[in-house]
Amino acid sequence: MRYMADPIQFTESKIEKNPVFLLGNEAIARGAVEAGIEFASSYPGTPSSEVGDTLSQVADKLGIKFLYSVNEKVALESAFAASISGMRSLVFMKHVGLNVASDPFVSTVYTGIRSGLVIMTADDPSMFSSQNEQDNRHYADLAHIPMIEPSNPQEAKDFMKEAFELSEKYHIPVLFRTTTRVSHMRGLVNVGEIPKIKGTRRIFEREPKRFVSLPVNAIGLKKMLMEKLGEIAMESDMSSMNSVSSDMISKIGAITSGSAYNSLMDAVVSHSIEMDVLKIGFTNPLPKTRIAEFLRKHEKVVVVEELDPYMEEKIRTIAQMNGIRTSIYGKLDGYFPQLYELNPDAVLQSLAGVINIPGYIQPNSPKNGSDLSPRPPVLCPGCPHRGTYYAVKRSVRMSNIKKPIYASDIGCYSLGTYDPFDEADTIISMGSSIGVANGFSMVTDQKVIAFIGDSTFYHSGIPPLINAVHNNLDMLVVIMDNATTAMTGQQPNPGNELDYDGKPVTGIPIENVVRGIGVKNVSVVDPYDLKASLITINRSLHQAGVSVIISRRECAINRDRKLRKKGEIEIYTVNQDKCGKCMNCVENFSCPALFIENGEIQINPTICDGCGVCAEPLVCPFKAIEVKN
Amino acid sequence: MTYNIRLAGVGGQGIITAGTIISEAAKRSGQKVIMSEIHGLSQRGGSVTVDVRIGDCYGSIIPQNSCDLVIGLELMETFRAIESLGNVGTALMSTEKINPISLSMHRKEYPCFEDLMEKYSMGTKIYPVEAGEIAMEAGSSKAVNIVMIGVALGFNLFPMNTSEVVHVLKDTFPEKKLSINMKALELGIAWSGRMKTHVHENSTVPNRNS
Ligand code: SF4
Ligand code: SF4
């Protein structure tokens, strides 16, 4: 239950209720709606997902065409088409999602667009839910695209509107970059009016010289792009998204942006540090004149930013080109860390190396970690993946397979890497399970098993499967189909018959895709039925060529929701008279509802979701786990 | 001045809901407020914290040694929060235990309360609350989060009034769940009331300025 009933009061603009308490991502959705978007598309990814969760609740009411695309590339290409057909369009994704969309991303900046097109990307410093902490600001340089970065929910909303204005004025896509802390920070936001949109269909007017990026056209487009960028640089210098926080009285200055600004300000206020702060919201092109002026007015300037020294390198260049002698401090000279997100304590510690902070005492080096039992995330109680991993591990052991290779992928099932399953040797990127399995099958004689979820399979698992079949490779591909994009909050995917708002769509059965590609050995199992799963896996492990097992069972979160509504959940308990204390259930199946107390196995009744899989003889050979009445 | 609250527990315990209720009530009482949320993979039964900062501040991260109040919905997670925050003003701790599989998988049991207290309280005043039982009495084991909000209100640990929280509850929960959560809030407040009247001479009850 969340305070989400009417997240942004989209239905009417109840402005008298200002301010409203919005999550950064909700504010982004609100900003886009206030900017009059008529089209939005995405592939879900933390920390960007709540933009879609919000839009999916209101798109229909407002007449916005919103859809989850099969992947980020298709999402961006669709939004591009909507934009050049005359609709303001938003496309959003997590940072690594932009890698997937990078091909059209770069070229749409060349061709330019018609109605505003904003590409929102959410970076994840400190990698709360990502495989890397790549700094997507570099994409702005790579693609020559203007970039805007908010620091808090109010700015997220306001800057989003500015991003659309900018995009439309210069007919160029705009990159809108957040980080986890900004996207997942809830704060007070004064919302504005929601315009009436046409939301009808448009007529696309052709202009092949612009939108066909063959070399003959691209040559001219590049030149035009660079000219545009020159004009946009002047916009940046005048933009109110860049601001100085005080009246320039100190000899010391700081240049900062995004979430780093918040950490800096909390540090500055807590220790009453006298410092002028230039906060940059328009981060590409940087406001060069303002920065030069700011540098000239200070003896020392620190650059406070997260991850790479992106601004610092440019600021040093600006100083050099203008012959400015101000001392500049940042990451390149080792004052600030290039790793992980900043926080007020880290900023203070770094600042203390540059300036004297009265009353600041260097903290004792923190002790190394806690010896409290760790509690990493786990597969939910009732999660179908637990059955799949349990059955595969058993089968591999029963078949006496030496050194199997588990190529896993991105989703909740990535948690299969942890004990007791330990069934992941590689996790690299979306769809890489089957891609990497291709390589292993070509260069080793080990048994290769790829695990991939349904959404990830649709997203980018199909091309590597084609590659495997075409090249007669050997592998077992286990597609874990829970009929949703679970990890990011149960968004729909192309396997579903209903869209997020209950509209009928065409579900694409995985078995049809797989058979269409030419896989001969295709089976479907229910991971709650351990015995049947085991038999099928055993058989498939001994088949040559590409075998596919679709392990199909609804995500436990969706199942629980439905059952709870109907009040039908029946939970399980351990009959102590029958329990043989073999400990198999806790040691090898490890549902989080199971625990040991005073030497006895117990089931936590508030956690058990009644899947009943632990009661199967393959988990509890003593048949001691029973329905609680 | 900022009043910093950390809510700690296990994914699925309603921590974001609790944080939003506290924040929304602070907002309605005319104060500035910022909250941090956890989404994605970390929500799946792992340690989860939500920080609420009331007053003038910029970011959602609570600096070291400046947390005024920890509200722990689970025993071990309360200690984990205290450990990571440095000096903490006051901690209210639900005695609910949710076993991390890292223990049972190795045939270990949940550590005993006294051991945890001795080893990890780091000088913080910790007030244990049987919130699980109180929640059951209110009608749902899931209402531990609201019970703990009630306890904090009862001790006057929030910079706002009970009536503001009650209004937010009414806007948050559908009718069916509202009565359980209102009951949970009342029982939580009453629990603190009893604590206050039963204190021994030389023990203390928490308050905001301590
Ligand atoms: S959300 Fe669904 S898929 Fe993810 S761990 Fe929970 S039950 Fe499994
Ligand atoms: S029935 Fe068993 S496996 Fe399923 S949720 Fe309950 S304890 Fe866990």
Short description:
The complex is a heterodimer of chains A (629) and B (210). Chain A is 37% helix and 17% strand.
What labels would you give this structure?
heterodimer, A: 629 residues, alpha/beta, seven-stranded mixed β-sheet, 37% helix, B: 210 residues, Pyruvate-ferredoxin Oxidoreductase, domain 3, 8 helices, 19% strand, globular, binds iron/sulfur cluster
Can you describe this structure?
The complex is a heterodimer of chains A (629) and B (210). With 629 residues, chain A is α/β, with parallel strands linked by helices. Helix content of chain A is 37%, strand content 17%. Chain A contains 21 helices and 23 strands. In chain A, the strands form six sheets. A seven-stranded mixed beta sheet of chain A has the order 3-2-4-5-7-6-12, with helices on both faces. Chain A has a five-stranded mixed beta sheet with strand order 9-11-10-13-14, sandwiched between helices. In chain A, helix 13 links the parallel strand 13 (300-304) and strand 14 (327-329). In chain A, helix 1 (24-34) packs parallel to helix 2 (49-62) and helix 16 runs parallel beside helix 17 (454-470). The longest helix of chain A has 24 residues, at 215-238. The radius of gyration of chain A is 27 Å and the shape is globular. Chain A starts with 19 loop residues before the first strand and ends with a strand. The model of chain A is unreliable at 1-5 (pLDDT under 50). Chain B is an alpha/beta fold and 210 residues long. Chain B has one domain (2-196): Pyruvate-ferredoxin Oxidoreductase, domain 3, CATH 3.40.920. Helices cover 43% and strands 19% of the residues of chain B. Chain B is built from eight helices and six strands, in the order βαβββαβααβαααα. Chain B has a six-stranded mixed beta sheet with strand order 2-3-1-4-5-6, sandwiched between helices. In chain B, strand 4 (67-72), helix 2 and strand 5 (88-94) form a beta-alpha-beta unit. The relative contact order of chain B is 0.16. The interface between A and B is large, with 68 and 64 residues. Strand 8 of chain A pairs antiparallel with strand 2 of chain B, so a sheet runs across the interface. The site of one iron/sulfur cluster has 14 residues of chain A, from loops.
